[in-house]
Amino acid sequence: MTAETWDLVVVGAGPAGATAAMGALARRPDARVLLLDRERFPRDKSCGDGIAPHVLDVLRPLGAGGVVDGWEPLQHLELSRGPHAVRGRMARPVWVVPRQVFDARLVEHAVAAGAVLGHHRVRRVRTDDSVVLLDEEIRARVVVAADGAHSAVRCALGGDRSGRLALAIRGYAPTRPDRVGRQVIRYGDGEVQPSYAWAFDRGDGLSNVGYGELLGEGRPPSRRWLLEQLEQLIPGTVEHGENWRGHHLPLSGWGWGREQPDGTVLYAGDAARLVNPMTGEGIFYAVATGALAGTAAMAGLDGEPGAAGARYRAAVRGALGQHLRHTCLAARLTRRPAVVEAGIIGAARDQRTFDDLVELGLGDGRLTPRLVVSLGDALLRHQIIPTKGP
After folding, report:
1. Cα-flanking dihedrals φ and ψ of residue 207, to 5°?
2. 382 falls in which pLDDT band (50, 70, 90)?
3. 192 and 212 in contact (C-beta within 8 Å)?
4. Distance CA 63, CA 103 (A)
5. Which candidate in 146, 157, 233, 236 could, as Cys together with 17 as Cys, close a disulfide (CB 3.0–4.6 Å)?
6. Better pLDDT: 14 or 257
């Protein structure tokens, strides 16, 4: 690793990092790409495990569309808060694949494309005019930092740590018969909003279950508190659950861009503070920004590597900028329980509103005029609408 200067070093081999490596090699198959991670694969990662179809839209052109093979697609989503509920069929299926499986498969694709996988924990980062030095021994023309919410690369370079965070806990529990083939989300009614519990059927007899909430000014909630809220919203889950793990979610903000400086270090996925602030979904953002980062890194090599940061920032803004602004606004609105209920009521009354809501929460959707009108109408009426059938 130390004898050469790599064209690209990717720090973190999760979805953002593995996709960055694949994106770079798709652009320039002869590039020298090193993919580093502090852990060995397969490894577990705390997450809701939901793989939206938009993830595969990014991965298929890179030859990795088969990462969900062997796992059952889900078509139905249930949303509820108190007495308000909607159960609808999604326009496109989703998959629930444990990160222990999903991430390892992506790494295999990255290696098959030509990336070199290394086991290394990065602690120090230094840049000069020509290279980026990692721990004074690994040299790169461009680095993609895809090392998660607590990015060591970002920390070493003095990156901004401000921004909103959520905290969630995840486990696995047997799937109840009435939840087979479903993703279930139940919003809380406590003081902290937004907050919700989930149960996502994996299709193999187990469900990914958990609870998350926005972190506020006070002391972060304890493990016991998170599990109590989960049990309150989805009774019987905690007793039979296991493999509990907590994680922070760095939520994206209104004007994404300052998170990515000019230069030769690019931030992708959670390290770029890109998690949907309305739903906590992050895998789509990870693969989308990973692919863009890999492409920008290689484009920089053809001209000026120092322009990679600006090129990547423009690419992310072009692909996700409007969506990020809309999700930020939606997240602010959903801090009011009445808005959450209005969204559920509107989705129960109209399939197209349901589809718009799903697209906003899982993909790159917008606050469409139809969705806004539906929210306004439900807020004005604020009446209970009968639950929609599957």
Report:
1. -125, 145
2. low
3. no
4. 15
5. 146
6. 14
